[in-house]
Amino acid sequence: MTAFTKMHGAGNDFLVFRWEEVRGRDLPELARRACDRHFGVGADGILVPAPSRKADLRMIYHNSDGSPSEMCGNGLRCLARYARDRSLVPSNALTVETGSGIHEVVLREGGRLSRVEMGVPGFEPPVELGGRRFLRVSMGNPHAVAFLAAEEVESLDLRTAGPEVEHAPVFPDRTNVEFVHVRGPHELRMRIWERGAGETLASGSGSCAAAAAAIREGLANSPVRVILDGGTVEVEWAGGAEDVLYMSGPAEYVCEGRLLL
């Protein structure tokens, strides 16, 4: 049996496993089986806090389809709270090694909220797909952001629109897809199709990509609240080519248990 802790950040849910319990296991297969919402516990992905020579710890992340991801903002907050609560790190300020580099996390309110240094957004030329204009943003992982009218965002069939963009030839490594409505100068409404997981209730890196795209396009100003199906996060970015972006949001426990896998 394998112990797990289930956590979520604004509804984006994860199964966290201790490094000692899963070291040497086939983690992609574990993710596929454990994250299945009918035959497993159910989650958008798995997280493992592993030792690091460069930071306080290293985040191993696999999506529910078993694929790895360079970065997961909501997962990073959950991992940080998990590590602090179990004394894997010495303080409320910690550094985490990810596939997109090292990120600093500062825990607040006993870990329920945290502020994450997400790095400098990167931009590539926009593309036209299916009659929509997508801004290409990198937060260490790829994102395609489309700004739409409010009713279109709410009524969109993500199971059709999401995969068409995720698997478009212009994205050889696939992409996360964000459909966004600008509610005001400091507020966005977003729905997300996540690479390797499908429709999720929230995405931390996706929220950052959407906010950065809105600020760059002159549609919003920092700070930006991003309203997701599972909750809200806040993004701060000054908008310069070398300015670091920050995200703040929740990390909550759901349950603990043991898997018969």
UniProtKB/TrEMBL annotation:
Compartmental location: Cytoplasm
Keyword Cytoplasm: yes
Enzyme Commission number: 5.1.1.7
GO molecular function, one term: diaminopimelate epimerase activity
Active-site residues annotated for this sequence: 72
Site (Could be important to modulate the pK values of the two catalytic cysteine residues): 143, 194
Complex and partners: Homodimer.
Name the UniProt record assigns to this protein: Diaminopimelate epimerase
Species, as recorded: Rubrobacter xylanophilus
